Amino acid sequence: MSLSRTDAPKGYKLLLDARRNLGTAFSEQQREEHGLVGLLPDGVETMSVQLDRARAQFAEQQTDIAKYQYLSALQDRQERLFYALLRSDFQCFMPIVYTPTVGEACQRFGHIMRRPKGMYLSTRRRGKLAEVLRNWPVREVRFIVVTDGERILGLGDQGVCGMGIPVGKLALYTACAGVPPQSTLPVVLDVGTNNAAFLSDPLYPGLRQRRMTGDDYLSFVDEFVDAVQKVFPDCCIQFEDFTNTHAIPLLERYRHKVCCFNDDIQGTASVAVAGLFGACRLAQSKMSDQRILFLGAGNAAVGIGDLFVKHLVSIGVSPRDAATRCWFMNSRGLVHAGMPKLPSYLAPYAHALDGVAIPSGAAAGPDSPITSLADAIEALRPTAIIGVSTVQHAFNERVIRTMSRLNRRPIIFPLSNPTSKSECTAEEAIRWSEGRAIVATGSPFLPLHYGGKLFVPGQGNNVYIYPAVGMAVFATRAKRVTDEMFLCAAESLARQTTDGDLAVGLIYPPIASIFESSVQVAIEVAEHIFEAGMAREPRPANVAEFVRAKLYEPAF
Ligand code: NAI
Fold this sequence. Notes:
This protein starts with 9 loop residues before the first helix and ends in a 7-residue tail after the last helix. The protein is built from 24 helices and 14 strands. The protein has helices spanning 10-16, 28-34, 47-60, 64-77, 79-88, 90-97, 101-107, 109-112, 129-133, 164-177, 196-199, 214-231, 244-254, 263-283, 299-314, 319-323, 373-380, 397-406, 426-432, 466-476, 483-495, 499-503, 514-531, 543-549, and strands at residues 119-122, 143-147, 184-190, 236-239, 260-262, 292-295, 326-330, 333-334, 384-387, 411-414, 438-441, 448-450, 453-455, 458-459. Helix 4 (64-77) crosses helix 5, helix 5 (79-88) packs across helix 10 (164-177) and helix 14 crosses helix 15 (299-314). It is of the alpha/beta class. The strands form three sheets. A seven-stranded mixed beta sheet has the order 8-7-6-9-10-11-14, with helices on both faces. Strands 1-3-2-4-5 form a five-stranded parallel beta sheet, with helices on both faces. Strand 10, helix 19 (426-432) and strand 11 (438-441) form a beta-alpha-beta unit. Bound molecules: 1,4-dihydronicotinamide adenine dinucleotide. 1,4-dihydronicotinamide adenine dinucleotide (NAI) is lined by residues 151, 153-154, 243-244, 264, 268, 271, 295-301, 329-331, 388-391, 415-417, 421, 442, 460-462.
């Protein structure tokens, strides 16, 4: 049939519109009304029957990437069914639409891509970005997740193939916290790629040139941010998976001017601080007792350090004293006051080494007297180690055993994603600490038994935070996104961890109930936004009801 969409009869068009398509759930009356009679089999089905069919089809897919493609096609075909399916079993579907499978999907995007989602803004469109944004069919865009594809998870430069991340992140805004999908827009800034394999791959779909850098790059991002203000004035921009050379400066450049945040910095910080609150309850210690050693000193590490310091300051610790509770290691070794070429954001954490007992025989490097994590642990005696380095196996047996010798309940957070970059597995942390470690991992790990006890590793992933903060920003039409909102989210999330969760070592509410916990976090953050005078909406009498009334429900 040679029927273009524009001259197709309205019933046929309706079936092609994923947002409105109910498939076999259209009632007899709707079929008559919309010209659908004969375009569907005669049986009228409920959502529950459609969900059963979708689950069975999903289960037939042989690999995770095939499952990913199945879900992606379902999203293109029948959006409500897609969200109802995700919400019916987060544990099953989240590892497919998000980390770890989304990482593989990005790496293979040029080969597996079907229908493009979102918008691709390339440097060829310079000077016309506002015009290009107007090609998006929806005017009321409230959330953009944008990446330039340069640091996708821990997988490096994926160019435009990084689109999988904004798509996956926005799907979870809706699935986990009820942000209406029609208000979201995934965006990739195509500034080229330095990924040699992509540049020579005939199926790479982006610009075939090396990355734009320096002032040219900055002015292109400036144009994008300005264009969003013009075309979608109520939109919040979430920066995602930029390298640390860009992420921190970009956040500083825009955070006080427009409504925006960086999830790798602020969302990760919030979930990690929530995890520390939970860990303190388990270890029966206080936040002010913690000394943290970070492996990695990039976006995520500095974000966590800054929010942890903000919390300590809020409970009366002096800013200087609070900063000294955080030490960082980067690829050159332990960060210290004498380390050359340190970026300015590390200045508060570049401590003097006086008084630090460097173990004899510690491996030294040209820029640091300590380059091994285990030596740094011996020297600094941290209560917690947080891995945001992308270095698989970095939390090795010696590291975990050293932490366990120094601490009754060592806090071990290997947060790097995807699973192939995790600093250790949950099982390793539990086994090498003889069941004493308090563990949170960035990617999901299955529950396990050790010493006759059940351990459920928590997923220390910003998915607990950004959809909920997003829902609060959406509901209140917040003017800006502040660190205080992320601290509020961390406190709210931590309060929802029950004694039952803690009994199995779980320091977050279970992933299975992420929708309920996210809505609660959204309500508390919305309260905070009204309180702080940051809302553009008038304060309602009942904030909880106000937020709940705005939740997207994927019902038929
Ligand atoms: P980044 O590129 O800003 O920072 C990476 C840091 O690791 C750099 O400071 C680098 O010097 C350091 N590093 C690299 N090799 C090292 C080595 N051998 N020893 C010590 N340090 C080393 O990246 P970003 O944004 O901080 O992300 C890091 C990781 O954290 C990624 O895998 C990312 O997926 C993960 N992440 C996890 C999140 C979660 O929710 N669980 C959220 C955000 C990031």
